[in-house]
Amino acid sequence: MPSLPDVMRQIRFTAPGGPEVIALESAPVPRPGPGQVLAKVAFAGVNRPDCAQRAGAYPPPPGAPDIPGLEIAGEIVALGDGVQGLGVGETITALVAGGGYAEFCLVDAPLAMPVPDGLSLLEAAALPENVLTVYDNIITRGRLAKGEDFLVHGGSSGIGSIAIQMAKAWGARVFTSARGADKGAFCRDLGADIVIDYAAEDFVEVIARETGKRGLDLILDMVGGDYIARNLRSLALDGRLVQIAFLQGSKAEIDFRHLMVRRLTYTGSTLRPRTLQQKAAVAKAVIRDIWPLVEAGAIRPRIDTVFPLARTREAHELMEKSSHRGKIMLDLAP
User: Fold this and answer.
1) What is the pLDDT of residue 25?
2) Nearest to 97 by CA among 280, 269, 221
3) Which residues of the chain have pLDDT under 70?
4) What is the Cα–Cα distance from 157 to 301, expressed in whole angstroms?
5) CA angle (57 as vertex; 31, 302 as ends), nearest 5
6) Which of 129, 136, 148, 153 is most buried as measured by Cβ atoms within 10 A of its Cβ?
7) Which domains can be identified in the chain, with CATH numbers?
């Protein structure tokens, strides 16, 4: 094992709360256990679950680090017992259960993915959480097929920007919602066919008009609240609604007769609490199906802002303002 420093910089939340509870501290560099690798982190992605964890609404699953950060890219600097097929010095991008906001991060070996050809480490670090989430929910769970009509709300977000590109590459007609002309133009540049300005238009009415009242085949939603019933009204026969977050609340009044009559499916999922085996299966499928699209340029991460680790508070403030387009990233350089 190469010589490693004893101490690293990391971010910790001192208590549940707003960005003011974000603290930069020194901590011991972890050592990899069996089946793990240790990565020297170059960049880490900032995601809404990080903000939810900070607020006390999304605690780490059992056994996960309490340090935030769900995706990283960097260089392998140490191997745990039993790790095969990976070597010290290799660059990887990875989904992690926590610990990404640190100079060194433990990675379960099955979740260490190769950096797609042509991508920088910054771009690679922007992929794992969004790509695995979108793939699992619109391709596997949502069963998106070529020629179908698909909607993702919040098209200018990290999740939305990947969902637009992935659905387009899959052969779907892509609808999205975004606020204002600038974000709308951003979504069209990603490949969205129909952009709905939710501040000025009722997405239910636009969908009915654009589909000849047929409705959509699949919706990916992160909003929740009153969007749930409106999403269900916007689905075609045998349509599917996949829920992955509840930015406006998880309670809704639904007429289930509508689901029965139109044979609708309402499902949802979270990625972080799943078993290593389940997440590894998603990662394997992404490498097989999505990495070639990334390397061909059909799917590319869009980076909004990169902050040094010491300015993580500003990164969370930007995330919570929802004024960004694409990904917010942390640079772990000293």
Assistant:
1) 98
2) 280
3) 1-2
4) 11
5) 70
6) 129
7) 7-127+274-331 (3.90.180.10), 131-268 (3.40.50.720)
